[in-house]
Amino acid sequence: MQNTKVQRTKPTYAIEAVDNALQLLQLLRDLGRVRLKDAAAELGVAPSTAHRLFAMLVYRGFAVQDETKQYLPGPSLDAAPAGVSWTTQLRRVCQPHLELLASRVNETVNLMIRVGSQARFLSTVEGTNILRIGDRQGAVLPARSASGGKAMLAELEPAQLHQLFRPNSSGTGGAGEIIPDVEHPGFLRELEAIRQNGFAANFEGTEEGVSALGVAIHNGAGEALGAVSVAVPATRFRQVFDNGLPQEVLRWRQELELDLKSFLVPDDGPAA
Questions:
Q1: pTM of this structure
Q2: What residue ranges in the chain does DSSP mark as E strands?
Q3: Which residues of the chain have pLDDT under 70?
């Protein structure tokens, strides 16, 4: 077994802002719920400084705020490694296509993969509109809420969906999150509609003011490698949609999948 040693000596050229952000992550991990003034006191900084640090953690998905304005761990904090070795190659192949689509629709474009019941954002290319959706690279969102996540879930067999979202024999739940009985039929109907339409939509399901259209992307063997979404401010999503966004994205996907035709998924396979 490899012997690893953890260095606990503070670096000579420590970056204070980074250290403060990491301490906030530790507080979230260990306490579960943190008030702004308590975090500021713990770090020995002004509340305004702690607020700015938290704002970046929220932006990257490492923290969220509840209705009382306290901070809680975000989805990125407990996300395990994806466990696949081919995401760098997928991103490299897709990147010029993402840039092309962003230039065509002038909206923000995201590449993501599915890991269990989560959608993980690998790359973002922002549009150039003054009002636009920002960078989501590194974000982790529930797959059943994100448009690209829905598109990937629609590719799964019923048994795989059951394993992810339905309770097991002990009544505790699947490998992902439990979908309540009352919501499950509607969830399945939505996935069937996605299969028929060829795309999925998210109407402010993951974030207020953000809507998106997503499609799954495949290699030549028909394996769903991931998904691409076009994120649009909700105030103009209907207009962009009616002006041909689905048709543009589906045409663009054909171009991308020509370059993905020979993309081979290694032995570690697609994300589970």
A1: 0.76
A2: 63-65, 71-73, 108-115, 118-125, 140-142, 200-203, 210-218, 224-233
A3: 1-14, 78-84, 167-176, 266-272
